[in-house]
Amino acid sequence: MSKPDDKTTGISADTDSTEAEVSSAGGIAKGQGDEVGGFVILFFIIGFVASLIIGWVVFPKLLYSQKTQPIDFNHALHLEAVSDGCESCHIFRDDGTFAGVPGNAQCSDCHQEVQGDSPEEKKFVEEYVAKEREVPWLIYSKQPDCVFFSHAAHVKKAKMECVTCHGPIGESTSLKVYEENRLTGYSRDIWGKNIAGVKRETWDRMKMDDCAECHEKAAGKKSSVQTDKEACFVCHK
Amino acid sequence: MKIDRRCFLSLGIGGAAGIALSPLPWKLADDSAIWTQMWPWTPVPADGEVTYVKSACTLCPGGCGISVRKVGNRAVKIEGIEGHPVNDGGICPLGLSGLQLLYGPTRVKSPLKRTGERGEGKWEKISWEEAITEVSKKLGDLRGKGESDSVACISGSDKGTVPALFKRFMSVFGSPNFMRMPSIQDSYEIANNVSMGFIAQSGFDLEKADFVLSFGSGLIEGWGSPVRMIRANSSWRKAGVKVVQVEPRLSNTAAKSDKWIPVNPGTEYALALGLAHVIIRESLYRKDFVQAGALGFIRFRDLILSSYSPESVEKITGVKKETIESLAADFAKSERPIAICGRGQGKAQSSLGELLAVQALNALAGNIGREGGVFAVNDPAYIAWPAYQADETAAAGIKKERIDGAGSVKYGFAKSLTNRFAGAVNSGAPVSLLFVLESNPLYSLPDTKAVKDAFKKIPFIVSFSSFMDDTALNSDIILPNHVYLERYEDVPATAGLSKPVVSLARPVVSPQFNTKHAGDVIILIAKEMGSPVADAFPWDDYQACLEGTAGDKWKILNEEGFSSDPAFTAQVVNTFPGKFDISGGIPDFTILFASVSHEGDPKAYPLFLMPYDSFRIASGYIGDPPFVIKTVEDTVLKGKDILVEINPATAKANGLSAGSYATLKTPKGSARVKINLFEGIMPGLVAMPRGLGHTAYDNYLAGKGINVNELIGTVEDPASGLDAAWGIRANLIKA
Ligand code: SF4
Question: Are the C-beta atoms of B434 and B154 separated by less than 8 Å?
Fold first, then answer.
């Protein structure tokens, strides 16, 4: 036999067997239609529920790592001892820039020596002040470098309260766990504790939309000198 | 009961629906956007208290005052100092990128001693003690053998205390061979010596001029003090000052000028003489200014009236005689006209003839030593150290003829002729040890092959470079200097300023590596050598020397960052009317005013290659840092290919088209280049930028393009010993 004939035979044989399979599968489907339909719905529900759980519960757990602050700082205690509120330690420098988290230079004014009997204070003095090391604080409100935010404009000029954005952190006696976004490296507080992004208080989130929300309320859509509109370059310089 | 494919399909659909209804996709999309800003190679400056340190930029001779912003201990930005007399808040791209030199990968991090072949890049780290002992011992041996004059030093500058310390070292050691890298100031110095009888630099009161005639000077391309020139240019625009640019190529300066006069390259001197001809013929000159030097003036007048009529000048220069007539009248009738020269950035010398022809125009206009004119500026006055005791070796050594011939009978007008260095060494002048300070001669001197051959003949080369540059790579020992942002140093701004300024470079950050101030190193070497060399260096260290030298100005330098007190900086010499003598005792004008004769057969090399300067390419000791090389246009450097500019007519004649490759051949070498067609260049010329083709430095710079110095040579000006070459014969062959 010649080769082309062989091929022809082969193809016809395959075709036969496929037809056979199809017809047999069709037979089963017809007989058990309703039962399979139930399974289809069940599987849909399983998939749906499982992925909802993944999306709402597992994903946030995986996304954020839990970190504790090097020193457990007591804001409430310090706030009582100072005269000028938050600005006593979170100072504005002479040139008007905001210093953010105070460094050892400021703390050691009082904490050159251990003052009380808090083990955290002892740790701070011995591990950091004495060794002239800065505390590697984890900053809940740290924003990406492309964001230009002037504390002076908001606090000094617009007379906003610290609480509006940072919440009542001054009343806390202990620093909460720092949840670090494994992808971006920023704190969970930026997106907000609520994974859906729902916020109740002004300080629950610190995303761009949250800035915009307040800006629109306060200034309408006209706060950029350049464009007379709420424009990108106000904050992204 | 059977689970089939549809079940799994539905599981998937259910899963997708569930995910879509969860925050996961939206949150991940948002996070990935932020993640892209967190790549480790994205530089994010540290957060913290901002401070500013006032200092001075030393990256070019411009002498700008800078203010460096720091966050904590990290320098993050360089800005110009507002109110500084040189740059008043301005800064150039190179100055702005200085931090990349400070923190970049090309730093030499500790003293290094060569272990492999020269240039192989094999080094051994040694301690400072070892390094200094080794160099001192070599020097001591040479001195002992009576060969002190075989020690030479090439420095980027000869102004300021650090070069002065090296110069002092050379003298007390017994060598006359302190050389500085060539520049147009060499030519100005000689021209001043010839025409006024003393060595001085030239300063230009350009801001007050009302007519600027530039013979090829890249006014906005880095000539003189670059930031100052950009500012001067803007002030001319505002005030309606007329700028005329004479140049064979439409440079940026030419494009921005009021009038561009394309001239046959190398014939600028003839055009200047043609203008002088018209000015004298029409009696438009300041007679009191030039006449008292009677004899010289009469000889000059007779020569140009007979030989440089606009008709004959048109034949030499290709500039129409009507243009010459009207330009001469415009120039002479202006209140404060000024003529300047020095091609491009003024990194190369020009012939004495060209200088004197251009200076003659200033003299005829009577604007030498006058507001809006040209001034003779002495070396900074504040370095006045007590004399030292020279022993016999020193006295005998410094009397010997310099390797570059400057000051000898033949080259009597010159102070430094480093352009002659390689040639002299190659024809047998002995150099046993070479110091290289703040310069990169192996890269920046023309005729790279000759310079390399000369370096091969020098048994011991000591580099003080902060960077692994082309010369450091080919040295035997590197004693790395701090970079300018880590050290104190006086920075006299000498590049064409009519009112000199001395600024103070101050450490902005502490030294990042195991480097040492070159001023300290030379003092330590001197001390190690013992008396009498050591006695000439009474200071404990460089800091003591600097503070002592600055005297009561130290406080002001520290507070203000600069001093422009003429008593401190440099005296401007009063040039009386009549003091200017064009002939300056040069007996034969014919060798003075002549076109350069180029080597090579015109048939084999029908074209001319000329280097040009760009504001975006640093071509001195400092090479382009990464930021700056990024600004170089695609029509100049594309990938690793260098593009040369030619006129479309030249391209057609040579069968070349835009973007095609060609072999550029000159008597000195050949290179593969790409073609960029440019209507703004005269047919027959090939223009190549200076500053590319480094073999050393980092991946951003090394291996990109061709070093034009490999293709060009020097042509000695018979009247002065200066390098008169403006280009070289060349050919372009389709590759
Ligand atoms: S012009 Fe020269 S001195 Fe001035 S900033 Fe630029 S490189 Fe520095």
Answer: yes
